[in-house]
Amino acid sequence: MLGKLLKYDLKWVYKVVAVFYVLALIFAILTRIFFSIENSLLFKIIGQIVNGAMISMLISSLINCLMRSWVRFIHNVYKDESYLTHTLPVEKKTIYLSKVLTAIICSFTTVLVAIGCLFISYYSKANMDVLKVFLKLTAESYDITVMGLLAIISVVIFLEILFIILIGYAGIIIGHKSNRNKMLKSVILGIVLYLVTSTLTLVVIYIIGLFNQDVMNIVNTTDIVNVDAIKSVMIAGIAIYMVYNVIYYLIGKMQLEKGVNVD
C-alpha cells in the first residue's frame, strides 16, 4: 500500500515541479549556447540573463518541491481528500511515511537536476580542472580525501533538507490539532521549532567546546584556521542533525497516530 500512496503523492508534487525542471534545463541549454558565442557583448548579456533565469528556476523547483509536499500533506490528511484517505485500509504511520519519502525523493531529484543544469551551463575542461584543484586543495586542508569531502557535503545537504521537511510536517500536524487558525499556527510553530532547534544546536556545540578546547578556539591566536576544530564541529553537526531528524520524525508519526481533526 505504501507504494501506491507514494505513487500518487509523487505524481501530485511533480505535476508542478517538473515544469520548473524543464524550464531550468531549457535555460541551461540557452546559457550554454549564448556563452559559447565569443566576441559578442549582446549575446554575453543575453547569456547572463538566461543564466540568472536558470538559477531562479532551480531555486523555485526546490521551494515548490517542499511547499507542494507540505500542501499535499494538508490536502490529503486534513482537507476534503482526507475523507477518502482515512477510509483506506492503511495505518496513519504509512500515510506519514509516504509523505516524508515523497519530499525526500523530490528534493533528491531537484539536486540532481541542479547538478545537471550547472554541468550543461558551465562544463569545460578548464572549469573542470579548476574545480578539481579547488576540491583537492580544500580536502587536503581538512586532511581528508576529495571523496570524503564530497560525501560530507552531500550528507550535510541531505540532513538539512530532511530537517526542514520534518519540521514542516511536525508544525502542520501539531498546528492542525487546534480548532481555529490552523494554518497560521502551523506556520508559526514550524518557524519557532526551526529557530529553537537551531539555537539548541549552538548551545550543544558550545557545551562540546567546554570539553574540547579545539572547538572552543576554532581560530587560534595567529588567526590560522584550526582544522581539527572545524572537523570536530562538522562531525558533531552531522550527528546532531541525525538525532534531530529521528526525533522530529517520531514526533510527527506519534502525533498523527493520536488522531486527526479533519477540516
Provide mean pLDDT, rounded. 83
Distance between the termini: 25 Å
CA radius of gyration: 22 Å
Number of helices: 9
Number of domains: 2
Helix content, binned percent: over 70%
Helix/strand order, N-terminal first: HHHHHHHHH
Largest sheet: none
* Count of distinct strands: 0
Structural class: mainly alpha
Question: How would you describe this protein?
Answer:
By secondary structure, the chain is mainly α. The chain folds into two domains: 1-123; 143-263, no CATH class. The chain is built from nine helices and no strands. The protein has helices spanning 2-36, 41-77, 82-85, 92-122, 125-141, 146-175, 182-211, 213-216, 227-257. Helix 2 (41-77) crosses helix 6, helix 4 (92-122) runs antiparallel to helix 9 (227-257) and helix 6 (146-175) runs parallel beside helix 9. The longest helix has 37 residues, at 41-77. It is globular and about 65 Å long.
Question: Quick gist of this model?
Answer:
With 263 residues, this protein is mostly helical.
Relevant terms:
9 helices; 2 domains; 263 residues; globular
Topology of helices and strands:
Elements: H1 2-36, H2 41-77, H3 82-85, H4 92-122, H5 125-141, H6 146-175, H7 182-211, H8 213-216, H9 227-257
Helix pairs in contact: 1-2, 1-4, 2-4, 2-6, 4-6, 4-9, 6-7, 6-9
